[in-house]
Amino acid sequence: MAEKILEVKDISFQVDGERILQDINFSIDKGERVTITGPSGGGKSTLLKIIASILTPTKGQIVYKDKDVAEIDPIDYRKEVSYFFQNATLFDQTVRDNLAFPYDIREEEFDETRSVTMLERLKLNRSYLDKEVKDLSGGEKQRVALVRNLLYKPEVILLDEVTSSLDAENKDIIYTILDELNEEDKMTILSVTHDEREINKADRIIRILDGKVADK
Q: Could you please report the per-residue DSSP string of 18-66?
């Protein structure tokens, strides 16, 4: 029997009286690859941010491993449920600064060997460690951000249109690593996308239309 890892229970969200989401319900099994689709402006990214605990729902709850996310320390939750932004958000000066961050918050020593190995899996060599963030292309920033998210493998990765602004080569690189993580490591992947390749890889598709789960 499949092990349930995430539940979205009666989630609604309003801003200034405007309804963005209404009574969203679904669950996700461990290792499942689920894609959320639907027209732009329908509430997909808002829903993903609520699942990531970046936004607080107006009503309802997100349950992770049978526990209400509101009762879990946000830092602990985000170590296991990792949100990957549409546009890579890098900070400080260098790639090294960014890759050291997951170790810093765990009060552990930076593992340079593992970081270089992960960079190389995403077609970035050791020299990138000391490159300044401002000198990276958009595709390189996105790959570095993915490495940062994966140095400690999360249980669940949330992908918000992460390949929408990338060229074909960078898309292929990111898709290859995601395929490996899902198929070999059984990582649970929940993505918001319009990309046909990503949609075709999904075990299940959830369509959001006007803030509601559309009928199958």
A: EEEEEEEEEEEETT-EEEEE--TTSSHHHHHHHHTTSS--SEEEEEETT
Distance (Å, whole) CA 98 – CA 148: 7
Q: Which domain holds residue 82?
A: 4-213
pLDDT digits (tens, 9 = 90+) for 169-189: 888 888 899 999 999 999 999
CATH number, domain containing residue 60: 3.40.50.300
Q: What is the pLDDT of residues 26-68, one digit of tens each?
A: 999 999 999 999 998 899 999 999 999 999 999 999 999 999 9
Under a CB-based contact definition with an 8 Å cutoff, are residues 42 and 36 in contact? no
Locate tokens 């602004």: which residue?
A: 165
Question: Total domain count for the chain?
Answer: 1
Pairing mode, strands 33-37 and 204-209: parallel
Closest to 175 in 3D by CA, of 204, 205, 196, 151: 196
Tokens representing 142 are: 């996105």
The model's pLDDT over 101-146, given as tens digits with 9 standing for 90+, comes to 999 989 999 999 999 999 998 999 999 999 999 999 988 998 999 9
Question: Is 13 within 8 Å of 57 (Cβ atoms)?
Answer: yes
Does the reported pTM lie above 0.85?
yes
